[in-house]
From TrEMBL:
Residues 50-69 bind DNA. Keywords: DNA-binding. Coiled coil: none annotated. Residues 18-87 form the HTH tetR-type domain. The keyword NADP does not apply. It holds the Pfam family TetR_N. The keyword Zinc-finger does not apply. It comes from Streptomyces mimosae. This is TetR family transcriptional regulator. It comes from the Bacteria. GO terms for molecular function: DNA-binding transcription factor activity; transcription cis-regulatory region binding.
Length: 207
């Protein structure tokens, strides 16, 4: 049976879904910035962001936001995934030292340089995601990807697998939004990243 003349094509539906996703994420980003600018810990933590507000600002129904993202935590996680997509691709299949082929120490330091830059540029988003996720952050696909990568590099450097697993969690634990904000200043914009790399070097030397 042929489609009705007025029925949208699958391509048009996919394009609409992509536009809606962009609009929702842009609205989330704007509300997060507004909340931070208003002062107070609630704004910094992303309490200014709600599904209702995001839907209204994006020009879509609340049901659309809920079906696609599920919650505020889902919105923040999607934004973080957008910001880290290029790094994930580079880690998985890019040239060394980020991608495969370099010694574990070089790959680890290059990876932490990239992840640190994302954290330093998105500290408020990181805090909002942490507060919205609470203990569920360990189930976040991005967290699991970074953890597997770190654990594999630490194991390749000589740590037993069970130690590498724990140490990978330890390194990721310092990617705390409040800590990133505290260490990131105009005079030292990359202090946080350098400190994390120092921590990682200490762990590598202890393998």
């Amino acid at each position: 049976m042929s489609e009705g003349r007025g029925a949208p094509t699958r391509g048009a539906e996919r394009a609409d879904a992509a536009r809606n996703r962009r609009a929702v994420l842009q609205a989330t980003e704007r509300l997060l910035a507004e909340g931070a600018g208003s002062g107070g810990t609630g704004g910094v933590g992303g309490e200014h962001v709600s599904l209702d507000r995001v839907a209204a600002l994006a020009g879509v129904g609340k049901g659309t936001v809920f079906r696609r993202f599920g919650s505020r935590a889902g919105l923040f996680a999607a934004l973080l995934e957008e910001r880290s997509r290029a790094l994930r691709a580079a880690v998985a299949e890019g040239p060394p030292p980020l991608g495969p082929g370099a010694p574990p120490r070089e790959r680890l330091l290059a990876f932490l340089d990239g992840l640190g830059a994302i954290a330093e540029g998105n500290a408020l988003l990181l805090t909002a995601h942490e507060q919205a996720c609470a203990d569920d952050k360990f189930d976040d696909p991005s967290y699991q990807f970074w953890h597997r990568h770190l654990a594999a590099l630490l194991a390749e450097a000589g740590h037993p697998p069970e130690d590498a697993d724990f140490l990978a969690h330890t390194v990721l634990a310092v990617f705390d939004g409040a800590l990133v904000r505290r260490l990131t200043t105009p005079d030292e914009p990359r202090r946080f990243t350098r400190s994390v790399q120092t921590l990682a070097t200490t762990l590598l030397d202890g393998a």
